[in-house]
# Entry
Amino acid sequence: MFLINCPFCGEREQSEFKAGGEAHISRPKQPTELSDDEWAEYLFMRKNIKGIQFERWNHSHGCRKWFNIARDTSNDQIKAVYKMGQKPPVI
Amino acid sequence: MAKNLRTKGSKFIDETTRVCFKFNGNKYFGFKGDTLASALLANNIHLVGRSFKYHRPRGIMTAGSEEPNAIVQINDNTAFTEPNVRATEIEIYEGLEATSQNCWPSVNFDIGGINNFLSPILPAGFYYKTFMWPASFWLKYEYFIRRSAGLGKSPKFPDPDIYEHKYIHCDVLVVGGGISGIMAAKISAKRGLKTLLVDENPNIGGSTIFQNSKYYKINNLTSSSWLENEIKEINKLENLTIKTRTSIAAFHGYNFLLARENLTDHLSANEKKNKVRQRLLKIRAKKVITATGSLERPLVFNNNDRPGIMLSSALKKYADFFGVACGEQNVLFTNNDTAYETAISLDQKGIKVNAIIDIRENSNSELSKEVEAIGIKIYRSSTVVDTYGYKRIKKISVMQLSTDGQSVKGQKIFINCDCLGIAGGWTPAVHLFTQSGGKLDFNEEDQIFLPKIYPSKQISIGSCNGDFELDKIINNTLKILKEFLEIDETEYDNIDVSGTRNLNKRNIWLLPSDKILGKTKPFVDYQNDATAKDIKLALREGFRSIEHVKRYTTTGMGTDQGKLGNMHALGIIADTAGVKMSELGTTTFRPPYTPLSFGTIVGRNVGEFFDIFRKTPMNDWHVKNKSKFENVGQWKRAWYYPNGNESMHEAVQRESKAARESAGILDASTLGKIDIQGTDASEFLNRLYTNSWTKLDIGKCRYGLMLNEDGMVYDDGVTTRLDKNHFIMTTTTGGAANVLAKLEDYLQTEWPELDVYLTSVTDHYATISVCGPNSKKIVSKVIPNLDLSEDNLPHMSFKNTTIDNIKCRVMRISFTGEQSYEINIQANYGISLWEKIMESGKEFNITPYGTETMHLLRAEKGFIIVGQDTDATLTPIDLQMDWIVGKKKYDFIGKRSLYRSDTIRDDRKQLVGLLTDDPKEVLEEGAQIVANLNKKPIEMLGHVTSSYYSPNLNKSIALAVVRGGKNMLGQKLFIPMENKSIIVTIVDPVFLDKENNRLNA
# Structure
């Protein structure tokens, strides 16, 4: 079970958090202008890589804030935690 | 059998306290401190169980948690019974009753023993191959296989014991209280680090505590005396907690470990009364030091499983620790020097050792010289080729090994014995390390797997790290700890250690016999009866991956997880397939290290604590009025209120009629309520819901439908504009938490520019809905100061008001199609308001109704329930709710998906109403709907989602989703049931009052 360093509360048990899938996928500003394929790309296509993955997490049983983490999926090490809106760190 | 094999006194056993216990119905005596195994051995009992597949007699093999054979049922036929208990771990107590498993009628005469003679036709994969055909016979086969399979019996009664969970946070966790673990704990605690030391045994000290050999000296003391002093010292350390009888079950990532602390299993029924039996410790350690030691390997040779064949190290522990001789005529069989240590120990205790068979050509160590000096005959370059004796070993036959170790030669010698100690070298216990995600490295020289890459802040020390000699253990432990704990010196820096032994072993994974392999039984996995033959067969049949061979032969799949034989299985595969061990890798070690009982895992979360439930403010009234309850999410909701002996159907019919003919009252407090405030609140709602919200007047309510981005209906409910920048949203009961989370997600991640604040207020309000033609009269009696006229409070509007000076909100919203008033009041006034309304409504026969009637009433109106009539595959268009989709809105969640090629198909499943030809016939919810019964396979068009008998329409009604249903109005379809087909007609989903006249009646 991970220990996650919530940027608002500090280090907490994974059981207080909820994973929210891949990070840095913005909702298109003008969905109506997108083709079916472009919209499907936003809607369904997610990466599942071995290595550093940027993910959204929510401190659901804590401050309820969303934030991002960079996690190495091969060993579950969390390389970085950063707030929503911030650019992903270079790792 | 009544022999006493107790030798002279052992200080680890309390010989003044005699303990009486029963094994297979017979009374025996042991001493306090004995395990069941040591007590049985002292009574000269080796035969403890039967093997899993061939039902061969099996005895005690080890003196620890790795025991594969001696597993027993404790206290059978009582609520306290437990199967698969290792006799080598359970300590005896007054009144303990243990019975053998896996044998019938008894361990001495087991009918299943016939499998042993059938073994030539029961090879690996026998069951897979034999019971494949014909497929329909499987149910018959299974009945018999299940009866003969399985280890032990599961308890028949609820577990009366108490279990607990406990969280522990520490700086350093030391796993294993052997010599290196004790040193680590002391060094750590003395530096002010909060340290926890756990050991699975009743005492710490490991195997050093009974090591009295003159070859091992620390500061001129025997290693055992030195360690005793150390233990006395660490017991006084402030920062150190020592937990014995505590075994780590699992080592997860981020240094999170689960341990089972056994508190009462060694106590008699009287002593353990009202005490917690076991604790599941959830340990989060900043650093973990693993000092789990090593397990002695057996040797794999023909018939190596007879009762009386034990590990050499176990023989030594039973003699030195428990003061028990395992036999009167002992023989040792070895590939390294540890058996010589055992021989000297046994000799010192006056236990006779007849001979040592050593597969090595030579051992010039001091140990071997001493053994020869004692007069024990050593057969070098020799191997045991067979063993004799059915229920106890009687003799062995020995032959010379060829130079390559692949065959035997010379004359066969027979040696009598009643106990054979086998020593195949040592396997570091790396199970926990690999569980934590650590990567192993194969050491060719010692033929062992060792920790290589640590995934977290942890380190392995002692023999689990490959150090087997005392001086190496101590020196390496100190070196490793200095680096790991970042310290320059320790209290042991001037320690003087002597102690080496010749661990040069001659490693032969499968020892040859004079018989061909096919005629022998060299067991690799004792508990699962997997032999070297089975492994070779698996390879011949094309299995290559170690994981596949494991599953095919079941090697390593028992309750012991193959702690003894896994290395031999790997070795035999490597030798046979001609690959290196390092390339082969190991199978995955999975938690738990030793089995956990369910009670420990569940802890206190049993009975009413199994899952939390939520009660509404009016719950006591519902209970008092004999309501039946339904679970909705975590809520207990009033389901229906039977009058006397009324059935559910009768109650619901009565409640539904009353609500439409006069007045009904519903507890709607469970509906999710989210308070939404902020200058952008209306814009936010506009983006969330499919319809338009910006122009909703203050004081008005509106129904909204929320979609996922994929266009599918997610939730629905009425939202009221309390003020310009203040709304209250209601959600479905089950969806409340998820809707709030979704809203927060959008606010925080997609639209952080919006000024909106969300608060869950579900629990703050009691919500009472009064409906029916007389509802207005009742509400006006309860709230006389509120003007209920159509002008002041029309349908879909709200007013703030007071009842007896208590503030409340009254909304004209309806889920039944009747004129309805929903009153929201501070939760703690809920029950008195409810009683007040009941009192005021008496003259109108106001009838409380539950969720079932609510569902029926809304179905008459064709209102959907999200989650019952929808299942995340239906768009608002599929639900015939086009009217709620704001065509002119530029965007809302899910809008773009409503015209994807898939969502605009006209053959999607669509919501329709169904009427049965026979109005009395009520359909089953979930029943499939078809058009053509004759064409097979029958094409399914959809299914029934809601179905009731409507007392107000006097006929059966149903909602359903049907492929292309929108364009099938009036069409007849079939619902095939087990014994008949029901004819239905597709109709509009609104069955009652299409014009909505009743809302304002």
Summary: The mean pLDDT of chain B is 93. The radius of gyration of chain B is 38 Å. Chain B touches chain A at residues 252-254, 256, 284, 437, 455, 709-710, 741, 744-745, 748-750, 752, 890-891, 895-897, 900-901 (CB under 8 Å). Chain B is about 20% helix and 30% strand.
